[in-house]
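Obj.: predict assembly geometry.
Materials: sequence records (below).
Method: joint structure prediction, all chains together.
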Amino acid sequence: MIDLHSHTTASDGTFSPAQLVEEARRVGLRILGITDHDTFSGYDQAVPLARQAGLELVCGIELSTKLHAHSVHLLGYFLNDLDPGLMAFREWIRDLQQSRRERNVRLVARLRELGLDITMEEAEARGGGMTGRPHFARLLVEKGYVSNMQQAFDDFLDESAKGYVTRREPRFAEAAQRIRQAGGIASLAHPIRLREDLAGVLPQLCADGLSAIEVYHSDHSPAQTELYLKLAAQNRLMVTGGSDFHGAAKPEIQLGTGRDNNLHVPEDLVARLCPPNA
Ligand code: AMP
Ligand code: FE
Ligand code: FE
Ligand code: ZN
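Observations (raw structure tokens):
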């Protein structure tokens, strides 16, 4: 079994890198991709642990990018972690981390304006170095302002909600190019969440530097998976897949198997990945 999409406490997952490696061993994963939001820190910590556990790790990341005014998640997979371009990429994501911190300052101010008594310290205490909206959502639940995480997003944090503040995000094309220049494979994450017509926009995304599409994901129905496979073939895109495991932050999703065993990532998928020419 393989799983190329997972999160640790370095972003918005609740399993530490060590716990995630242990979970991978427990469920019998052969290959695990760690794709934290905007950081490699969870992957870096997992490397020696995975080696000890005999687990093959894939270095990944999930970037929030801007496409036609909406936020689109883009996965990057770096099969050769000695690629000379990776140093520059690691430098670049520090800017993204900075833009997240700036956004969080404005988000706290906005939520306080709306009458919510929260502080940055409280939010950061729930995020492990990469505080994001899910951590704010957890805080609002804990303080009793909302009854669950989804309500926190619906009422305050979603793009269309009253507490939303924008964040400086790289354009989709820039992020895809940066991934390629670092020897990586840019894969469109959970295409089901795209707010526009996938078939119509894919040629442009390919021209922008997209190399793959996340066909297999816990949020995809069998029919959607079939459709994405077809679109991948039509657009000559590689195929990736994973559960999007977040631990207790998304308790219904299991590592490797998704929601109620709805995820079946083909065993030979990693062998078929091959970095494009930059
Ligand atoms: P951030 O990167 O801090 O802007 O937070 C983005 C994360 O928040 C996404 O990866 C999702 O996990 C979560 N998220 C965003 N919008 C929603 C929503 N409407 N409902 C639930 N979770 C959401
Ligand atoms: Fe997430
Ligand atoms: Fe995502
Ligand atoms: Zn994810």
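Conclusions so far: The mean pLDDT is 96.
To do: check interface contacts against the pulldown list.
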